[in-house]
Amino acid sequence: MREEFSVCGTNCSFSLQFLQNLGKVDRTADDIFDEHLQNFMRQQNAANRLQKEFNNYIRCVRAVQAASKTLMDSLNEIYESQWTGHDLLYVQAQNLDMLWQDFTHKLADQVLVPLNTYQSQFPEMRKKIDKRGRKLVDYDSQRHNFQSLQCNPRKRDELKVSRGKELLEEAKRTYEQLNSELHDELPALYDSRVLFLVTNLQTLFAAEQVFHTESAKVYSELEAIVDKLANESQRGSYTLKKSTEPQSPKSPNANSALIINTQPAQNNISPDVEYENGTNFSLGATTDNLPPGVLYRVKATYKYRREDVDELSFDVGDIIRVVEYDDPEEQEQGWLMGIKEDTNEKGMFPANFTKPL
């Protein structure tokens, strides 16, 4: 068996290595061990790179986590308390923060810690490999010395020969023990790379999948909050009202028109609605023989589907009794409060989708 060895730092080892390089002293090498050593070096380099890149990745994730929290805190501060979904926005921001915390904890505890444990095997194994190299040099040195003692029969000293043989056998035992252990440990370590990588990546990708799926749900809720705010803003819910005389109602907001199949043309909007002391009246409406609290009646000329819980849905031909708003402050331009005669449902509805009776 031929076994190659690493250079020892002592003068004796350096001299022996120098003579071996010149071809004046035979050296021992082990082709099988060489293959194990090459595999070890590749595996160690891969583990070091993976550890470096994942440490960088988790640092970036934590930076994004901090930025996300700062952003959501800012949004909660600037989102005014009277706006729709204010409390829900806060709840969803907290949910998002908890998702980030759970995600980073999983990356650190279930991915990074096992990776560090896996990578920590290599420095210890490297020390053992280097020790084997030194013991191999000692063994070759003792073998060379013992051969020298036997090569000169005239100056043969049996005591030196006996002592040389003992030192040779001791060096051989030490080397062969380390060599045998490494022949078992290096292949086992190399074979473990596949199972480690599979387990580690499965944990990583599962954590990623859960985080992105759940955070997508949160962002969907946040989007719905903002969409509702946009709809209410288009209806003028958050517009400052001027202290002027009431004006004739205008057409309902554009978003309401998107809900119905057909939209009344602008030139067909009923112009005969006026306001007196904040109460809706129609110039062409009959006010005789109406139930108490009913201002007048209208008939639906277009189909309308409500966009909010306080609105009224109706079909073409439905009769609606117009009543006063419970709170005059809630009254919006172009909208009436009414009760459907057939179902007694109550809610706001766009005036220009109806005509007075």
Automatic annotation (TrEMBL):
Residues covered by region (Disordered): 236-255
Subcellular location: Cytoplasm; Endomembrane system
Cellular component annotations (GO), alphabetically ordered: cytoplasm; endomembrane system; plasma membrane
Domain SH3, chain residue ranges per copy: 293-357
Positions of the BAR domain: 18-235
Keywords from the named record: Coiled coil, Cytoplasm, Membrane, SH3 domain
Pfam families recorded: BAR (PF03114), SH3_1 (PF00018)
Predominant subcellular localization, coarse grouping: cytoplasm
SUPFAM superfamilies: BAR/IMD domain-like, SH3-domain
An MF annotation (GO) of this entry: phospholipid binding
CDD domains, alphabetized: SH3_Amphiphysin
PANTHER family xref list: AMPHIPHYSIN (PTHR46514)
Protein name per Swiss-Prot or TrEMBL: Myc box-dependent-interacting protein 1 isoform X3
Encoding gene, per UniProt annotation: LOC100746749
